[in-house]
C-alpha cells in the first residue's frame, strides 16, 4: 500500500516537472500566486493568503524580490531575444493620498540573488550607481514604476515609468499615462492610487515597448514608451525574469496580482483579470495636518482658552461681592449683585432715575415684575460696615405706610447697594422746584406733610428702637403711586434703644436742615424735629432753607418767614405757585409750626407726636410770637465748624462714609 502511494507521488512529481519544462518553452501565467512553487522569493517578499504576492510592506528600507525559478534561454546565436510580458501590480501607500515609495521594477537578471542590491531608489535591483555604470557586468534590464523623484538622476518630478539598463539611471522615462483607444488621447494614471495597474513590456528583438493601463482598460493601441534597444550586450545566455521592489523613508505596500510571460507574442497567455486576488485598500486618508496648521490650531485653542478665562474672570469680577461670615444672619435681606445687575440692565443709563451726591439711583425690575429702586453708593471704609448692615436690616423691619420699604442690600468692594421699593412718582423736590412738573396743590402739600410727620413720629416713638432719620428734606420724601408722601433714604439713619444716651453721635445732615446745637450736642430727636421744621417751611414756601445766591434778608428761609410774620404778612412767605386755592389758616399754622420746630433752643421744639397733633388740629399751637427768643434765629452751621468738630468724631460713626457726600451736597445748593 505504502509502495503504491510512493509510486503515485513519484509519478505526479515527474508530471509536474514535465509541465514546468513545457512552460519554459511557452512561458507561464499566474492569475494570483496561490500555486507558486516555481516562484523564488528573496528579501521581504511573501505570498499572502488569497494569492497576493507582496514584495514589501510599509517598513522602512525594505527590499523584496520574486523570480520565476527557471531561467530563460537568451542564447543570441540560436534564438531571438524577444520576450513579452503582461502583469498586474499595485502600489499601496499607507494612507490614501499620501506619498509612497519607492516602487516596483520588472527585472530581467542573470541571477536571482539580488541580496547585495540596495533599497530606496535602487529598487532592490542595483547596488551602487558608480559601481554599476563603471562595470557593465551587472547585465540588468529593469522597467521601473518609480514613485519617488531622485534629484541626482535628473528624474521626472512625479512618479514615473522608466527603462533602466544596468543602472538605476533610466535611459528613458515617462509620466504614467495610457492611450485611450476610445477617446484617442492620453490619460494619466496615478501610480499611488492603490488600485491595480496593468503593465505590458514587449520586446521584439529591436524595440522595447512599455504600456500601462488601469485594470478595467484593454491594452492601449499606442505604448507609453517605445525605444529601440539592442539587448544582446545586456542579456547573458540564461536570464531570470521577475520583480523587485523597495521602500525608503517613503513607504508603500508593493503587490503583484497576476503575471503572464512568454518568449513569443502569439503564445502569451491572457490573464484572467476576474481571478486576480484583491488588494487591501489603503487606510482612509486622515488629513495629515501640517505642523504649521497644528501650531495654528494650538495657538487658536490657547487664544480661545485665554479669552474664555478672561470672560470668566470678567464675569466673576463683574458680579463679585463682598460677603463676610457675620452677614449670614442677614441672608434674606441680601441681594446678589447679579440679580441687581440684571434687574437694572447692567446699571444702564436708561434705568438711572436719579443722581445725587450720595450716588446714583436706578430703577430695576426683578423677576415677577417687582419694581425696585437700587441706590448705588461708593464707600471705601470697611469700618462700621457690620453695624451699618445690621441697621439696614433693622430698617427692613420698620413698617409704616409712610416709609419707603427697604428691601435689602448688597455689598461689593468699594460699593454698597441699597434696595428699596420703587416709588413711581419720584421725590417731592422735583415737584416743588422743577417748573416742568406740576406744582402740588395745597391739599397735596398738607397731606404729604402729615404723612411725613406721622412717619417721623413712628420712627421716634413707634418702633422697637428709636430711629433718627437725620436727613429729612424734600428730596428724601418720595411719592408713591397715590401721591402719598413716604419718607425714604435711610442712608444716614441712626438707631438706638429707647432711653439710651446719644451724646456721642456725629453731626450729619444737609446744611439748612441741621439744628444749630448739632455740632455741640450731637444728634437727638430734636434735631430731626428741627429738620422737619425746615421741611415744613420748604414745602409751604417752595424755597430751600438756604439759598446762598439770594440777598442777606432772603438767604435764610427761617429768618425770612419770621421777618414776614413780624411785618404782619406771614402769608406772603407762602409759595406763589400755590395760587389762590389754599386755606389761609392752614398755611399760617404750618408756617408757625415750622418756626416752632426750628426754634434755636432744642427744648422749646415740640416732639413729633405733638407736631402730628398740631397738624391734625387736635391740639392748638402754643402761644408764641416772632419775637419769642429762639424763633426765627437762624444760625447756619458753617462748613468751618463742621470740619473742625464733626470729622474727628466721625471715626466711630457707622455712616461716616456718607458725611462727606452730604456736606458736599449741601454745599452745592
Ligand atoms: C512588515 O512585515 C514585518 C514582517 O512580517 C512585520 O514585522 C512588520 O510589522 C510589518 N510592517 C508593517 C508596517 O506592517
Ligand atoms: C561595488 O560596490 C561594492 C559595495 O557596494 C564594493 O564592495 C565593490 O568593491 C564595488 N566594486 C567596484 C568595481 O567598484
Ligand atoms: C501619448 O503619449 C505618447 C508617449 O508619451 C506620445 O508619444 C503620444 O503622442 C501621446 N498621444 C497623444 C494623443 O497625446
Ligand atoms: C512598439 O510600438 C510601435 C509603435 O506603436 C510599434 O510599431 C511596434 O511594433 C511595437 N513593438 C512591439 C514589440 O510591440
Ligand atoms: C545587436 O548587437 C550585436 C553585437 O553588438 C549585433 O551582432 C546584432 O546584429 C545587433 N542586433 C540588431 C538587431 O541590431
Automatic annotation (TrEMBL):
Which amino acid positions bind ATP, per UniProt?
375
Q: Where in the cell is it found?
A: Cell membrane
- What membrane topology term does the record carry? Single-pass type I membrane protein
The entry's keywords = ATP-binding, Cell membrane, Glycoprotein, Kinase, Lectin, Membrane, Nucleotide-binding, Receptor, Serine/threonine-protein kinase, Signal, Transferase, Transmembrane, Transmembrane helix
GO biological process annotations for this chain's record? cellular response to ethylene stimulus; cellular response to salt stress; defense response to fungus
Q: Which SMART domains match?
A: S_TKc
State the InterPro entries in the record: ConA-like_dom_sf, Kinase-like_dom_sf, L-type_Lectin-RKs, Legume_lectin_dom, Prot_kinase_dom, Protein_kinase_ATP_BS, Ser/Thr_kinase_AS
Q: Which GO terms describe its molecular function?
A: ATP binding; carbohydrate binding; transmembrane receptor protein serine/threonine kinase activity
Where is the secretion signal located?
Answer: 1-21
Q: Does the keyword DNA repair apply?
A: no
Recorded catalytic activity of this chain's protein: L-threonyl-[protein] + ATP = O-phospho-L-threonyl-[protein] + ADP + H(+); L-seryl-[protein] + ATP = O-phospho-L-seryl-[protein] + ADP + H(+)
- EC class, as a word, reads transferase
Gene3D superfamilies for the chain: 2.60.120.200, Phosphorylase Kinase, domain 1 (3.30.200.20), Transferase(Phosphotransferase) domain 1 (1.10.510.10)
A Pfam family per the record: Lectin_legB
Q: Which GO terms describe its cellular component?
A: plasma membrane
Q: What is its EC number?
A: 2.7.11.1
The UniProt record lists the Protein kinase domain at 347-617
Q: Which residues cross the membrane?
A: 292-313
Q: Which family does it belong to?
A: In the C-terminal section; belongs to the protein kinase superfamily. Ser/Thr protein kinase family.
For this entry, the protein name equals non-specific serine/threonine protein kinase
Give the species this sequence originates from.
Answer: Eutrema salsugineum
Amino acid at each position: 500500500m505504502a509502495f503504491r502511494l510512493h509510486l503515485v507521488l513519484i509519478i505526479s512529481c515527474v508530471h509536474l516537472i514535465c509541465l514546468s519544462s513545457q512552460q519554459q518553452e511557452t512561458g507561464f501565467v499566474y492569475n494570483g500566486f496561490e500555486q507558486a512553487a516555481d516562484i523564488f522569493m528573496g528579501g521581504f517578499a511573501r505570498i499572502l493568503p488569497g494569492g497576493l504576492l507582496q514584495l514589501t510592506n510599509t517598513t522602512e528600507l525594505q527590499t523584496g524580490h520574486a523570480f520565476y525559478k527557471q531561467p530563460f534561454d537568451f542564447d543570441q546565436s540560436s534564438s531571438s531575444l524577444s520576450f513579452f510580458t503582461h502583469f498586474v501590480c499595485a502600489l499601496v501607500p499607507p494612507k490614501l493620498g499620501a506619498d509612497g515609495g519607492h516602487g516596483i521594477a520588472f527585472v530581467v537578471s542573470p541571477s536571482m540573488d539580488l541580496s547585495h542590491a540596495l533599497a530606496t531608489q535602487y529598487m532592490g535591483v542595483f547596488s551602487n550607481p558608480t559601481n554599476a555604470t563603471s562595470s557593465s557586468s551587472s547585465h540588468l534590464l529593469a522597467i521601473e514604476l518609480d514613485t519617488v523623484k531622485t534629484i541626482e538622476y535628473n528624474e521626472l518630478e512625479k512618479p514615473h515609468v522608466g527603462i533602466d539598463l544596468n543602472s538605476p539611471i533610466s535611459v528613458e522615462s515617462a509620466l504614467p499615462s495610457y492611450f485611450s483607444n476610445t477617446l484617442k488621447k492620453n490619460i494619466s494614471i496615478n501610480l499611488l492610487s492603490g488600485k491595480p495597474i496593468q503593465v505590458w513590456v514587449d520586446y521584439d528583438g529591436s524595440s522595447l515597448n512599455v504600456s500601462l493601463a488601469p485594470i478595467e482598460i484593454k491594452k492601449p493601441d499606442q505604448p507609453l514608451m517605445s525605444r529601440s534597444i539592442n539587448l544582446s550586450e545586456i542579456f547573458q545566455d540564461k536570464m531570470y525574469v521577475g520583480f523587485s521592489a523597495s521602500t525608503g523613508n517613503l513607504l508603500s505596500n508593493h503587490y503583484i496580482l497576476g503575471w503572464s510571460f512568454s518568449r513569443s507574442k502569439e503564445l502569451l497567455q491572457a490573464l484572467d483579470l476576474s481571478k486576480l486576488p484583491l488588494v487591501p485598500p489603503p487606510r482612509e486618508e486622515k488629513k495629515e495636518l501640517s505642523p504649521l496648521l497644528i501650531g495654528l490650531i494650538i495657538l487658536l485653542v490657547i487664544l480661545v482658552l485665554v479669552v474664555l478665562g478672561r470672560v470668566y474672570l470678567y464675569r466673576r469680577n463683574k458680579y463679585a461681592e463682598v460677603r463676610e461670615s457675620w452677614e449670614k444672619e442677614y441672608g434674606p435681606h441680601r441681594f446678589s449683585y447679579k440679580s441687581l445687575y440684571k434687574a437694572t440692565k447692567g446699571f444702564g443709563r436708561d434705568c438711572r432715575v436719579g443722581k445725587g451726591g450720595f450716588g446714583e439711583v436706578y430703577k430695576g425690575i426683578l423677576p415677577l415684575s417687582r419694581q425696585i429702586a437700587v441706590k448705588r453708593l461708593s464707600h471705601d471704609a470697611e469700618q462700621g460696615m457690620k453695624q451699618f448692615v445690621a441697621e439696614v436690616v433693622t430698617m427692613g423691619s420698620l413698617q409704616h405706610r409712610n416709609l419707603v420699604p427697604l428691601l435689602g442690600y448688597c455689598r461689593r468692594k468699594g460699593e454698597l447697594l441699597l434696595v428699596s421699593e420703587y416709588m413711581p412718582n419720584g421725590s417731592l423736590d422735583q415737584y416743588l422746584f422743577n417748573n416742568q412738573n406740576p406744582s402740588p396743590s395745597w391739599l397735596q402739600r398738607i397731606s404729604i406733610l402729615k404723612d411725613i410727620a406721622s412717619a417721623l413720629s413712628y420712627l421716634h416713638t413707634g418702633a422697637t428702637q428709636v430711629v433718627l432719620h437725620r436727613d429729612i428734606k424734600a428730596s428724601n420724601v418720595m411719592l408713591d403711586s397715590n401721591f402719598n408722601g413716604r419718607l425714604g433714604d435711610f442712608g444716614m439713619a441712626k438707631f438706638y434703644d429707647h432711653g439710651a444716651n446719644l451724646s456721642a453721635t456725629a453731626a450729619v445732615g444737609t446744611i439748612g436742615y441741621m439744628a444749630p446745637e448739632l455740632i455741640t450736642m450731637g444728634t437727638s430727636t430734636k434735631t430731626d424735629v428741627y429738620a422737619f421744621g425746615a421741611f415744613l417751611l420748604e414745602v409751604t414756601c417752595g424755597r430751600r432753607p438756604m439759598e446762598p445766591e439770594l440777598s442777606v434778608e432772603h438767604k435764610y428761609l427761617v429768618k425770612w418767614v419770621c421777618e414776614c410774620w413780624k411785618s404782619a404778612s406771614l402769608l406772603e412767605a407762602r409759595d406763589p405757585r400755590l395760587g389762590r386755592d389754599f386755606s389761609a389758616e392752614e398755611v399760617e399754622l404750618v408756617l408757625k409750626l415750622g418756626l416752632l420746630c426750628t426754634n434755636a433752643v432744642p427744648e422749646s421744639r415740640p416732639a413729633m407726636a405733638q407736631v402730628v397733633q398740631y397738624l391734625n388740629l387736635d391740639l392748638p399751637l402754643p402761644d408764641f410770637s416772632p419775637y419769642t427768643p429762639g424763633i426765627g434765629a437762624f444760625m447756619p452751621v458753617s462748613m468751618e465748624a463742621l470740619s473742625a468738630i464733626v470729622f474727628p468724631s466721625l471715626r466711630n460713626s457707622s455712616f461716616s462714609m456718607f458725611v462727606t457726600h452730604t456736606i458736599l451736597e449741601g454745599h452745592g445748593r
